[in-house]
Amino acid sequence: MTGRKEETLTNVTLLGNQGTEYAFSYNPSVLETFDNQHPNRDYFVKFNCPEFTTLCPKTHQPDFATIYISYIPDVKMVESKSLKLYLFSFRNHGDFHEDSVNTIMNDLIQLMDPRYIEVWGKFTPRGGISIDPYCNYGKKETRFEEMANYRLMNHDMYPETITNR
Amino acid sequence: MTGRKEETLTNVTLLGNQGTEYAFSYNPSVLETFDNQHPNRDYFVKFNCPEFTTLCPKTHQPDFATIYISYIPDVKMVESKSLKLYLFSFRNHGDFHEDSVNTIMNDLIQLMDPRYIEVWGKFTPRGGISIDPYCNYGKKETRFEEMANYRLMNHDMYPETITNR
Amino acid sequence: MTGRKEETLTNVTLLGNQGTEYAFSYNPSVLETFDNQHPNRDYFVKFNCPEFTTLCPKTHQPDFATIYISYIPDVKMVESKSLKLYLFSFRNHGDFHEDSVNTIMNDLIQLMDPRYIEVWGKFTPRGGISIDPYCNYGKKETRFEEMANYRLMNHDMYPETITNR
Amino acid sequence: MTGRKEETLTNVTLLGNQGTEYAFSYNPSVLETFDNQHPNRDYFVKFNCPEFTTLCPKTHQPDFATIYISYIPDVKMVESKSLKLYLFSFRNHGDFHEDSVNTIMNDLIQLMDPRYIEVWGKFTPRGGISIDPYCNYGKKETRFEEMANYRLMNHDMYPETITNR
Amino acid sequence: MTGRKEETLTNVTLLGNQGTEYAFSYNPSVLETFDNQHPNRDYFVKFNCPEFTTLCPKTHQPDFATIYISYIPDVKMVESKSLKLYLFSFRNHGDFHEDSVNTIMNDLIQLMDPRYIEVWGKFTPRGGISIDPYCNYGKKETRFEEMANYRLMNHDMYPETITNR
Amino acid sequence: MTGRKEETLTNVTLLGNQGTEYAFSYNPSVLETFDNQHPNRDYFVKFNCPEFTTLCPKTHQPDFATIYISYIPDVKMVESKSLKLYLFSFRNHGDFHEDSVNTIMNDLIQLMDPRYIEVWGKFTPRGGISIDPYCNYGKKETRFEEMANYRLMNHDMYPETITNR
Amino acid sequence: MTGRKEETLTNVTLLGNQGTEYAFSYNPSVLETFDNQHPNRDYFVKFNCPEFTTLCPKTHQPDFATIYISYIPDVKMVESKSLKLYLFSFRNHGDFHEDSVNTIMNDLIQLMDPRYIEVWGKFTPRGGISIDPYCNYGKKETRFEEMANYRLMNHDMYPETITNR
Amino acid sequence: MTGRKEETLTNVTLLGNQGTEYAFSYNPSVLETFDNQHPNRDYFVKFNCPEFTTLCPKTHQPDFATIYISYIPDVKMVESKSLKLYLFSFRNHGDFHEDSVNTIMNDLIQLMDPRYIEVWGKFTPRGGISIDPYCNYGKKETRFEEMANYRLMNHDMYPETITNR
Amino acid sequence: MTGRKEETLTNVTLLGNQGTEYAFSYNPSVLETFDNQHPNRDYFVKFNCPEFTTLCPKTHQPDFATIYISYIPDVKMVESKSLKLYLFSFRNHGDFHEDSVNTIMNDLIQLMDPRYIEVWGKFTPRGGISIDPYCNYGKKETRFEEMANYRLMNHDMYPETITNR
Amino acid sequence: MTGRKEETLTNVTLLGNQGTEYAFSYNPSVLETFDNQHPNRDYFVKFNCPEFTTLCPKTHQPDFATIYISYIPDVKMVESKSLKLYLFSFRNHGDFHEDSVNTIMNDLIQLMDPRYIEVWGKFTPRGGISIDPYCNYGKKETRFEEMANYRLMNHDMYPETITNR
Ligand SMILES: [Ca+2]
Ligand SMILES: [Ca+2]
Ligand SMILES: [Ca+2]
Ligand SMILES: [Ca+2]
Ligand SMILES: [Ca+2]
Ligand SMILES: [Ca+2]
Ligand SMILES: [Ca+2]
Ligand SMILES: [Ca+2]
Ligand SMILES: [Ca+2]
Ligand SMILES: [Ca+2]
Ligand SMILES: [Ca+2]
Ligand SMILES: [Ca+2]
Ligand SMILES: [Ca+2]
Ligand SMILES: [Ca+2]
Ligand SMILES: [Ca+2]
Ligand SMILES: [Ca+2]
């Protein structure tokens, strides 16, 4: 079979692994990376994650969200199965929506040192109101720092129609 | 449980509180805040509020809207259950659509002193016409003042399709 | 102008009336009727009412629903502006969703003595779950009684997709 | 050009006619027919008419609807341009929604003597409520009379979602 | 390669053929068949044909439709590329919508002698009205004749929403 | 009832008025204004008007459109019921689509002297083509003049999908 | 406040209760009921539950579903907050999709002894395939037993379009 | 963890297995079953399979479809990962759409001996036409044989709108 | 009737004309203009043309597209019925998609000498791929030349979702 | 037939060719070009390719995506049937999503030397997460290099809603 060589994937231990362990408490150490094969090009990778769930820190009731993560890689790229296990580790964790989204972005910056990254959470409603936090980041003293400001300034000028149904 | 510490939530008296009182007249004093844990970052929080209702000041008939509130916090953040009770207090209050949207934004500026905020109301039709007011604000003498002008200039260039059905 | 004669509308006191009073407590007496001009024909009339709101009897928080009412008239037909004022009177009234829908149908049976009627409420969620009660009725010892059983047996075999957004 | 022979269209005076006159008061006499070329087969023809408008008989405000007309022809079929002119003639006419729909069906029965016909009007809201009347008819003492009962019994068990937007 | 044997396709001369000729006048003789390999089973095959166009017999303006054809095969099945060429041959042909749909069904009955067949045309509007004819057929003195009556009786009780946009 | 004071509404004579007269010929004098209560803020008000109808100046056939009007008020604001009556007055008026949209904007500039305004008409098709004119305006020698140029340059780069159905 | 009397709600201990405990292992005992106030009428209640999550019994990866529950009550009705806590108790529980749906229905039959009930789970995909189990039940030796057979025979003849996006 | 016991899954060798082999030629032997735990109840299981691809037997070009499979189990149930591998084995296989759908159903009948089963394929277009075959089956001399006839008679009376885009 | 004066329409010979001739080969000379009545204002006019069809220059099979044309008029404006006849003249014409779109724009520049124009064709797929060419133009040495560059740079950053169904 | 001359198509060997060979391993040499007939104009061509499939390099399971390719041609343009065969050649090829998208763009740059190009892949989910890589390119030392940066900075600020269904 042509394509990706297996030797470029030695850091990837979870993908296709039969005995995957799921962590039931918040665990950023499960994240893994592989090498960007196109480091001379700036390009985007987006993860759509509609199966995110966590708990309210005060009432302990479950919260549900779709998390959208978009980034421009530098040297390292996050492997998607490890990302899945990382997001799973919020399952029994309690945090406000605004904090979860910032935590996810901080952990991915720590892991990959990306050129640019943004995280948008779209939560289901409680008491008739839903909350959608969005944060972003560009590497300091590069043009991506300016890009982060530009994208924040232009963020979500067409809020999607919400009816709670 | 990992996550938000309860001691950061001492101002939050309404969330999870069994004996919540609903105010039947306009009451901005019900709004509560908690501290922004990421004050070094500019990021957005959006509230989708599809259950807003008020009365016409002249005919007293009920009006219904979805209210979209987006802001960039500074030090304080509005707690969502108190926001719900605040919006509830318009239930038997009479105002024009254009005024309700401005009032909500003024009260939230007063409460949180945010870096940036915008409020968009999308009302159901009366007599075959519906009205959607939008206002925004950036903190004076910061780059968010310019951001408010920029977003107003680019506001709603793709009006959603309305058929009144 | 050709069309409906004004003399057939003498019972209709609310439509087009400038000084309409809105009742803030449950009030079925506001309902008015006019005469069916096609009593020899069985036909359906449906009211779509997306602006229904009431209160939870235990927590007093507001509930919102779209109410769909369909009926086959006999001699009398409900006038739509009076129906609007009647539904408004649930605004500060506390009831379970299942009870509101049954109450609306009972009041309309009492008012119009229709051949057939059905009422379906589709409420917004609380705590991640939404509730949609449906009831119907056919006049006893007519073929419409059998019609009610038939429509109940076939009710809602394709539940609409709900995502709480 | 192959296809319909012009000599089968001698009754069709309006289609393609440059000097069409529009009637500004209700005028069923404008309706024209042509001959059904498949009288040995029962088949349906549906007209979708989203540009119907009339006036309220009491307040004189304009009303708008989409009218859906479906029928099984017998000997005569209604020509679509004459149908358009007929529906135009309601433009300055005042009637309740329930009456308009019955009137349209009565006029088409009178014109075509169809085996089966049904008319469904879906109107835009007034005061937060929209009204959708539906009537049907099957030729007496044929199996189409039973068909009309059957279709009424099964009518609209999945009301379309209405949000008034 | 496993699968269909080439020797079962000897009648199929058009599929994959480089020098296909397109007929510019109505030409049912272009239709080809292949053998049903599951004649002991009653099953449906549907063709979705959104690229149908013909001419008005009176004004010669072009008409456009999506044609839906569903049938239960008996011994022969229509080959899809020949169906495409057949539908193409209406391109410069003039006929009323009601006639086109009946003609297509008649030609396919003649070709395949199917157990059951139905054809539904959904045309774009002219003068604000669109027309959607539907016809069907079941083989005489089989249970498919009754099936055709049953499906006609239940036809299109939920007309799709049309806005002309 | 808290909210808008009645004394700020003395110019508003039509809202809630029982004996409203509908003008059957083009009549901009029916338009009324009330005072902007937030003149120190630039904000948008949008009217969605899906019930606009006029006549073709050459064939006299009816035309239908949804009109979207967005503006930034200066001192005066148009009252919505008077806007409804104004748009009604095009009902028996003959004009090209491009002219209607320009006329509406000119009349509203004349009435309110707004900081910025734009009008977009989306008409239903005739002969398979629909026309959507858009015009805008910013007050001369203010930054809103530049805003008008900017919004024209960026206008409608994502045309909505049209199928004529 | 008019409406439901508090004394009819003595069994309802969870609704509006501040200190709700969430069970992290499967726990049907958390379910509570209240009395049906319309026992002489057959009517439907539907719960839409888009926030259901459980674990795969073999790989322990999380599964997500929307659960639709519809029933005709007899004497008792399930209270919705207790239903929420019950569904929460599947959060760390491992089961096949087909078993979860049957278990939920069995527990609700045990709890309420309803006249009729059905449960439909629509799960998100794993490996490109999603699974949607559906079961139903009618009380033995009543007409609801026949109703269950009838609804099974007619179940889901129009599968919703799935694209995995 | 509560839930399914591992000992009921001894036949399930592929689910969660790291070294899964993909068969590149048609291979029904890869299918595996597990035991139905609710054999006293008739209930439906549906598989949504939007990632089906095969080859044209004549031109060898790839074809793509969404396959919907619904069945009522008897003693055995097909395991979903083995179903995925089975459908994968059509990847380089050549067959007409009508044959693929019948083959899939025949193989699943052979495997599970279900009470009832149906398979619907919805293919992407070639030359402007798409083909959607549907077949079904009920166990001989049970009420499910009659159910298969009933569902065929009622099949797809509302064809989904297709635009080829 | 108020509105457009007939004397401004003397160039308009096709609109409302009974004996319209349809050209079966490519014919730009059929295009007609009328005078812009608002030449001091820059504004947009968009034509939505979902009924465009042409032939493949190599295989002669028919191609179908929706054509979107937007322009800012200078002195002359294209009359819509003549545009319809012009687009009809591609019906039996053979060209690549990229060429048709450029040809249409070139002919309209030649006809109207507009300030700005753009043409976007969205074709139906052949062999699983669809092609959507887009071109634009601004009058040389005006700010509209820069506008054309700007709009090309920003073109279609959100490609519509295509599934070929 | 008017239109494209056959002599401009001498490089086009695959379009309309009966005996097309499909390559089962990655093969960029199958790509063919034809000459741009509008080289003095900058314009876009977009290919929508919803039938892309490849294999995971580690697990060998199939992956599916819709690929969107947009470019501004210089001298050469890619012929669409050869593009189809090229994309087919990924069918049994193993690569990460991020690599496939970059490879496609690199091969098309090599083939056509376009002024600008971008490629966006939208893949179906694995384990609850889907991945959508996007890359772009502008010819070095032209304004299209800057255009690539600009479009990357503005990329996908409105991620489409993903529910995995
Ligand atoms: Ca929604
Ligand atoms: Ca929804
Ligand atoms: Ca409309
Ligand atoms: Ca909700
Ligand atoms: Ca609503
Ligand atoms: Ca709507
Ligand atoms: Ca439509
Ligand atoms: Ca149309
Ligand atoms: Ca449309
Ligand atoms: Ca989706
Ligand atoms: Ca089309
Ligand atoms: Ca599509
Ligand atoms: Ca697909
Ligand atoms: Ca489609
Ligand atoms: Ca979900
Ligand atoms: Ca989907």
UniProtKB/TrEMBL annotation, chains A, B, C, D, E, F, G, H, I, J:
GO terms of biological process kind: tRNA queuosine(34) biosynthetic process
EC number: 1.7.1.13
Reaction catalysed by this enzyme: 7-aminomethyl-7-carbaguanine + 2 NADP(+) = 7-cyano-7-carbaguanine + 2 NADPH + 3 H(+)
Gene Ontology CC annotations of this record: cytoplasm
Keyword Hydrolase: no
Pathway: tRNA modification; tRNA-queuosine biosynthesis
Record keywords, A-Z: Cytoplasm, NADP, Oxidoreductase, Queuosine biosynthesis
NCBIfam families: QueF-II
Record protein name field: NADPH-dependent 7-cyano-7-deazaguanine reductase
Source species: Shouchella lehensis
Gene: queF
